[in-house]
Amino acid sequence: MPSIRVFENTAQLHQAFAHKSIRLLRIGEKKVCLARHGQAFFAFEHLCPHQMHPLSEAQITAFGEVVCPLHAYRFHLQTGSEANQKCRDLKTFEVEIRQEGVFINLY
Ligand code: FES
């Protein structure tokens, strides 16, 4: 799978996201969450690996975890691992900020 450009530049990206916000992006047939934590951006699968609740409704903690609203499982934004290893890891995607724009690598 290719790298997909999701924003034209970082100014657009920063404008679209408040700190600790999550947005759902549709990339072709695929739905991906993009989240901001501080100055960093993280992309991950839309549905929780536990029972498929949409993570676009999740919260981001001060510690850089995404917390599913249904059963409060906590996934590390960088690694995707669940804090208590209660289910499989959240699938994460690389976010690349280049001069030509902001890309998500869907590999
Ligand atoms: S569905 Fe996400 S924690 Fe259960």
From TrEMBL:
Its cofactor is [2Fe-2S] cluster. Residues 8-104 form the Rieske domain. The keyword Iron applies. The keyword Signal does not apply. InterPro entries: Rieske_2Fe-2S, Rieske_2Fe-2S_sf. Pfam families: Rieske. Keywords: 2Fe-2S, Iron, Iron-sulfur, Metal-binding. Belongs to the bacterial ring-hydroxylating dioxygenase ferredoxin component family. This is Rieske domain-containing protein. The lineage of its organism: Bacteria, Pseudomonadati, Bacteroidota, Cytophagia, Cytophagales.
